[in-house]
């Protein structure tokens, strides 16, 4: 290319993000990202690393020493967890009740593990009896489950029962908490979770780039006693231990600005209080749920395992999901998403996460959704939804 391209100044649209992620970023987090850059081994940054780790322990409700932000998106923390814990010859038990159980399986296979499955319909949690039967049959070394399934809007209930089954068979438990950390009740230590990974762009309302991960001593012992190295050098936790542990030895250049952002997002969690934050998400999402149900729409999961942070709303008859999604984007600068996998075309996925879990956002969303559905000729009560939201608040 002989001449430089003529590119305009960056000016993305100002969307209201109410899809499955990313969620709206708090202004304080954006300001933190604009602060001066320092080196990834600068003494001041080492202090920031310590503070970020301590704040992550608070959000995860854990005392795990090995609690870090992985350099990368939530999929990086997921692959760090599975790729380090599963080694050739291991068997991993994974769920079939959502899209991200399938991703667990793919990562375990790439790590050299054998994958077996425990079944449940999409949109329902795993049954501890089925998990027990799968353990009795397959004797897996690692068991993974999705605490908050972003593809179905279902929350895994009875987590301590699942971890008890796994531990009675000397297996380690990996939990996907990408859509629950900081928004839905999660108690890593109390519930017996050995490894949990997450993403910053959901209930923490932080741009993607530094993703939470926590491992207890049993899990780290397995990682450090592997017979052969993890297949990913970049995500090898035995090497990352040198940087995030006491040595603070160089491994790779950390995404410094993303760590700034995560630290500030976690400060907001601590200031609000984790239990108060869980309650806010349930209250605000409860108003969203009341609004869509008042219009005559159904949610995909049953109430017992409804996921406040991700509301899976059934697409009504005679409506195409993409038409509604496009209308909201074009007319309201409002983002929601459609379904994945088995639920593609069947549901709208509406996030109520972090800085997006506010009365203003939900009131706006339900009114806009009512307009979009009415425009598409759906048989809905366009006035009942906004009225139900007002009543709920």
From TrEMBL:
Gene3D superfamilies on file: Aspartate Aminotransferase, domain 1 (3.90.1150.10), Type I PLP-dependent aspartate aminotransferase-like (Major domain) (3.40.640.10)
GO terms of molecular function: alanine-glyoxylate transaminase activity; L-serine-pyruvate transaminase activity
Keyword terms: Aminotransferase, Pyridoxal phosphate, Transferase
Keyword Cell cycle carried by entry: no
Boundaries of every Aminotransferase class V domain copy: 39-339
A biological process term (GO) from this entry: glycine biosynthetic process, by transamination of glyoxylate
Disordered, as annotated region: 1-23
Required cofactor names: pyridoxal 5'-phosphate
Protein family per UniProt: Belongs to the class-V pyridoxal-phosphate-dependent aminotransferase family.
Protein name: Alanine--glyoxylate aminotransferase
């Amino acid at each position: 290319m002989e001449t430089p391209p003529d590119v305009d100044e960056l000016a993305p649209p100002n969307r209201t993000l109410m899809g499955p992620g990313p969620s709206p970023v708090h202004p304080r987090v954006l300001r933190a990202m604009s602060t001066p850059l320092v080196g990834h081994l600068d003494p001041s940054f080492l202090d920031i690393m310590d503070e970020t780790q301590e704040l992550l322990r608070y959000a995860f409700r854990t005392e795990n020493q090995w609690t870090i932000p992985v350099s990368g998106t939530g999929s990086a923390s997921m692959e760090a967890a599975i790729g380090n814990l599963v080694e050739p010859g291991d068997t991993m038990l994974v769920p079939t009740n959502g899209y991200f159980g399938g991703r667990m399986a793919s990562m375990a296979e790439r790590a050299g593990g054998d994958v077996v499955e425990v079944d449940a319909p999409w949109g329902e949690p795993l049954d501890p009896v089925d998990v027990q039967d799968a353990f009795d049959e397959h004797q897996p070394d690692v068991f993974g489950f999705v605490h908050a399934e972003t593809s179905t809007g279902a929350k895994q209930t009875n987590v301590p029962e699942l971890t008890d089954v796994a531990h009675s068979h000397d297996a380690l438990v990996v939990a996907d908490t990408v859509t629950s950390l900081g928004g839905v009740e999660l108690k890593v230590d109390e519930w017996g979770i050995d490894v949990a990974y997450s993403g910053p762009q959901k209930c923490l309302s932080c741009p993607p780039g530094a993703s939470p991960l926590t491992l207890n001593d049993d899990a780290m012992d397995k990682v450090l006693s592997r017979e052969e190295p993890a297949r990913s050098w970049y995500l090898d936790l035995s090497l990352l231990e040198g940087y995030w542990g006491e040595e603070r030895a160089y491994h790779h250049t950390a995404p410094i600005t993303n760590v700034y952002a995560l630290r500030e997002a976690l400060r907001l969690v601590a200031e609000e209080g984790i239990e108060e934050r869980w309650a806010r998400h349930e209250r605000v999402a409860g108003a969203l749920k009341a609004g869509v149900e008042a219009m005559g729409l159904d949610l995909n999961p049953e109430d017992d395992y409804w996921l406040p942070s991700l509301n899976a709303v059934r697409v009504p008859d005679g409506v195409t999901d993409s038409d509604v999604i496009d209308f909201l984007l074009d007319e309201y600068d409002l983002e929601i998403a459609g379904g994945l996998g088995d639920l593609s075309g069947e549901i709208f996925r509406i996030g109520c996460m972090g800085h997006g879990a506010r009365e203003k956002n939900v009131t706006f969303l339900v009114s806009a959704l009512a307009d979009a559905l009415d425009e598409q000729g759906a048989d809905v009560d366009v006035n009942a939804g906004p009225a139900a939201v007002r009543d709920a608040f």
